[in-house]
Sequence to fold (392 residues):
Amino acid sequence: MQPDHILIRYGEISLKGKNRNYFEARLIKNLKDQLNAFAPSSFEFVKKISGAILVKLNKNGLADIEKVEAAILHTFGIVNYSFATSLEQDLEKIKAFCWDLIKDKDFQTFRVTCQRSNKEFPMKSAEIECEVGGYIFEKFADKKSVKLKNPDCEIFLAIINDYALVSLDKKQGLGGLPVGTSGRTLVLISGGFDSPVAAFSVLRRGVTTRFIHFHSMPYTSKASLEKVTDLVKVLKKYQSSGILYSVPFADAQKEIMLSCPESLRIILYRRLMLKVAQQIAQKERALALVTGDSIGQVASQTLENIFAVSQATDMPIFRPLIGTDKEDIMNTAKAIGTYDISKLAHDDCCTRLMPKKPETRAKLPNVLAAEKALNIPKMLNEILGKVEKIKV
Fold:
């Protein structure tokens, strides 16, 4: 018999107290949306059961399990899941099916775990576990042993409603919280490895994301904008918004280059970017900005420079990668599907007109003094007047 249900389990959501129903409802909605996006018309229902969510697959879903699984693996809030087969609530049939399920598998130790939400079933969970486990143990004739902690093989039984569900393996989900439960942010996305991973990190905490990208066209090619568009398409699969603000920044860079000390150029670029991003964020009703900064990774990301840049806005700035090694960032990029796009060469906005010796230990008073040479309100108005909103 082919698995026809999926048992979806969550972790952190169960600790939400009086708000738990809200988080569960959002997870169910998000999962339905993902199933419809990855595997259209693949399920009969997605509903809450005791401590879990149950998906019943239809013929389309059974025919394309890979797409169904892709939907699950792009849904935050799912800790683990199991493909399960539904049976009658007949103990002899359950025992026989469990035996058929594992008799040819390679393992030495096993256990049976049961959750009984149908309290009308005459046996308790522990009794069912003993009955089914004892039957399998006897069938193996002492060739396998029962191990309650960390067994090689574990059979999961769920006695719910008027049927039983049997599954063998739990598979890991993304964890986190359902997207849409934790407010909205604006992500400064560059086209490199870091900022898409930063976006993924806040999505995993249930945050809704919008994106903003600064470019130097026509002095540079369209490659960075094209890359960022492709990156947002990947992140959109994880239920990001797909809304991208494209910001022309070349004229502002030129003005900073002509008016300010060369060593502070990158810091002043970034301060102005944050000021622009704050205006867009307020328009989008976003409550924070997100960057891919990691301490010490490049000259502009020393602690002193991060401090000097951060003073440009009074809006919270989230830096989820701040203590993350580059290798870990790259590994995450590979896992989420952004690596192959990010590694493509492009003309980065901040590397245009790069100073020969950028300041690595900027002092805020010096930065503010240099910034006085600029007409910031005028520059903001000019930049914001040329911003393009793109729906990816």
Remarks:
- The mean pLDDT is 93.
- The chain is about 40% helix and 20% strand.
